[in-house]
Amino acid sequence: MRILLAVSLICMSGACASNNHAVVGVKSPTNAPTGTIAGIVSTGGDAPTPLVGRKVTAINTESGARLDATTATNGGYTLQVPVGSYRIEVELRAGERLSKQPDPTDVGSGDLDAARDFMITR
Q1: pTM above the 0.85 mark?
Q2: How far apart are alpha carbons 49 and 100 in whole angstroms?
């Protein structure tokens, strides 16, 4: 319920429309500090195509906690996460492979870890 409320408030404020990313807010225990991970998921080649509706998961490397977002019409995703180290994964479908993926990232309080992009080839 809290996550849904956070997403609704973010979207009502115009954040979803202005950056065209799917946004997932996370209510941290005791309002612990958070940061943001964002990127684009697209196909490879001369004219990359954004991939809509792909699940992107940030996995905390210490606790194993998993936070998900779904890519928007421009292939973009945004995840608000508690401070920590994260490995980021994207959903692949039959016959696909990753040709580019982001390295693990350390998220600090108030950080925006942008350009955590994925490129998928078929």
Answers
A1: no
A2: 14
